[in-house]
Specification:
The protein is an alpha+beta fold. The chain contains twelve helices and twelve strands. The strands form five sheets. A four-stranded antiparallel β-sheet has the order 9-10-11-12. A two-stranded antiparallel ribbon has the order 1-2. Strands 3-6 form a two-stranded antiparallel ribbon. The two termini are 22 Å apart. The mean pLDDT is 94.
Length: 262
């Protein structure tokens, strides 16, 4: 059984059904959404991004033309960690405007060699999903994952929550801190879900992509998402657990006491 711990507001307990912003755990859903489109033959992991979004540009023209869908999801585009986040966090720019301004961000790392944790590239992946799904990224995630898994209280963004949602907000000294309600970059971090409903997502993944005997996500897709794509620790500390820490597609991967941890 799943439980909630603590309070969602003063005097209001967290329960297993309280929804919270799951932040970058949203990235796993975006990678899985891309995987569904790959399964359906609508795109390939190694397609150039510009094949699907001709307007995609970064500061380096060579990187812009060679960036693949796989690169978008594995934090190796040449931008440093969190580069460009001030374009969308706390701003009212839409995805198109953030994408346009991303071309001005300095590329200071080596493409496909160095890890830089990126939210903007997940936004781009979401735009590709939207283009091929015939609906918004939010609708696609809700229809293809939340609905079959019975995640009825979960929503892909704050704006889609019902007014009476049992929602948790962060608090400092008893004062509620308003959520940032994403205008742009939703595929990077905007999903709301609960302990109870994320348990269904975990069970799907642990069952190799099957739910009640029906395939929701192919095992081949999970293998692709859960294999190393980018080394996280480029400096090499010498500790085996650090040296083998990597990133797949939407997931961090590591080795703990001889076991692969996803």
């Amino acid at each position: 059984a799943s439980i909630g711990v603590g309070e969602r507001a003063p005097g209001q307990p967290m329960t297993q059904h309280t929804v919270t912003n799951i932040a970058s755990c949203s990235k796993a859903f975006t990678a899985a959404a891309v995987a569904l489109l790959v399964q359906e033959g609508k795109l390939s992991w190694d397609d150039p991004v510009q094949k699907h979004l001709p307007e995609f540009r970064l500061a380096d023209p060579w990187i812009s033309s060679h960036m693949t869908v796989r690169d978008l999801l594995s934090h190796r585009c040449g931008l440093v960690t969190f580069a460009g986040d001030l374009l969308w966090y706390g701003s009212d720019y839409d995805d198109a405007e953030v994408l346009r301004r991303a071309a001005g961000l300095p590329i200071v790392q080596r493409f496909r060699e160095q890890f830089g944790y990126q939210n903007l590239m997940y936004m781009v992946a979401g735009l590709i999903v939207q283009k091929h799904a015939g609906c918004s990224w939010e609708e696609f995630v809700e229809r293809r994952f939340f609905a079959p898994l019975g995640m009825t209280a979960s929503r892909a963004s704050a704006q889609r929550l019902p007014a009476d949602a049992e929602k948790a907000l962060p608090h400092i000294h008893g004062e509620a801190i308003p959520d940032h309600e994403f205008t742009a970059c939703k595929p990077a971090a905007s999903i709301y879900s609960s302990v109870h409903e994320l348990t269904a997502w975990m069970r799907l993944l642990l069952a190799g992509g099957k739910w009640n005997g029906t395939e929701v996500l192919a095992e081949a897709s999970l293998r692709e998402m859960w294999k190393p794509h980018t080394i996280v620790n480029n400096r090499g500390s010498g500790a085996a657990t650090d040296d083998l820490r990597s990133y797949g597609l939407g997931w961090f991967l590591s080795l703990e006491r001889g076991h692969k941890v996803i």
